[in-house]
Amino acid sequence: MVSVNDDCRDLHFRKAEFDPEDCPQDCSKPCEKVCPADAISLESVMVGGEHTQSDPLRGKLKGGVLTERCYGCGRCLPVCPYDRIRAVSYVRDPTTTCELLKGNDVDAIEIHTTGKGTDTFNTLWNSLSESINNVKLVAVSMPDIGESTVDFMNALYAIMEPHIHGYNLWQLDGRPMSGDIGRGATRETVSFAVHMASVSERPPGFYQLAGGTNSYTIDCLKKAGLFQSTTFRGTTTSEMIHSQQALIGGIAYGGYARKIIGRTLRKIPAQFGRVRIEDHPEHLLEALQEALSLVGPVKSYPALSSLS
Predict the structure, then answer these.
(1) Is the domain of 239 the same as that of 97?
(2) What tens digit of pLDDT does each residue of 20-68 get?
(3) Are residues 97 and 245 part of one domain?
(4) Which residues of 26-46 are buried (b: 16+ CB within 10 A; e: fewer)?
(5) Within a domain: residue 96?
(6) Partners of 207 in beta bridges
(7) Can you spell out the DSSP letters for 13-67?
(8) HSE on the CB side for 102, CA within 13 Å?
(9) Which DSSP symbol is given to 106?
């Protein structure tokens, strides 16, 4: 899947940035502690090149944001005691995206929209329309914008419909990039699903939850009467809710999936250097088992004990 955005204000398309040399030597580094992606690394060094812990006046900090790890959650921004961190936003180039869509290794496109209006979405869609027929799935990720949400979605669908040759999916982004925080984070995305289920004029397509999704999401969906599971050959289903209200067809575990893999990677000893989890089967199995505990209730996979 290739992801694009129609507005630079979209939270998914930003990076944190700061100059570590502007940071006071005695800073407690709360940004480093709060980053869920371990994307901030700060180290004390002496101006002359020797490490120091006792002479902050002669030292400085080096390192900063590891851009390839940062996914724009923004948690470092409010905790900086000196207000030195800034968010740098960008819009992915549609011309480059068109070329990617022509490749055989791209099956889907995910379009992030802020819900601020259809003009920017229409401009982006028109720039991609010649390549859209190369993909099997078009997903639109958007926040809950209140009573106008369904009208906005129908307007987007009217723009897309003439060029969609595969499936389309609506990704309900209740609370972006917050699934690793805990139980409370999933309430907004489930509330978004409840809102959509109550509206009969919603546009066609599959519906998927995102933003704030974690190990509590399915339980919350069950309580709301929105959970449904699918049976595959050779599996059994412990429960099936036959309800027109059970409209959620999938769950995207973004931030929570990063938390799972990050927690596992940190268990691999540092002396291995650049880590590939595939080279450590026991840790890979652990990560897979936790991942399957998330998708298993939806996909009706067999008991995890059979994987041991």
Answers:
(1) yes
(2) 999 998 899 999 999 998 899 998 876 655 554 545 455 688 899 999 8
(3) yes
(4) ebebebbeebbbebbebebbe
(5) yes
(6) 170, 248
(7) SEEEE--GGGS-TT---HHHHH-TT--EEEEEEETTS---SS-TTTEEEEEEE-T
(8) 10
(9) -
> Do residues 193 and 275 both lie within one domain?
no
User: In the structure, what pLDDT confidence band is assigned to residue 265 with cuts at 50, 70 and 90?
Assistant: confident
Q: For residues 162 and 236, state if they share a domain.
A: yes
3-state class (DSSP) for residue 165: coil
Note whether 190 and 106 are same-domain residues. yes
- Dihedral, CA of residue 37, residue 145, residue 197 and residue 12, to nearest 10: -20
Query: 87-131 pLDDT, tens per residue?
Result: 999 999 999 999 999 888 999 999 999 999 999 999 999 999 889
Tokens 């925080």 map to which residue? Answer: 181
User: Can you give the residue range of the structural domain that contains 100?
Assistant: 2-7+92-251
Place of tokens 């069950």: 222
In this structure, are 105 and 195 located in the same domain? yes
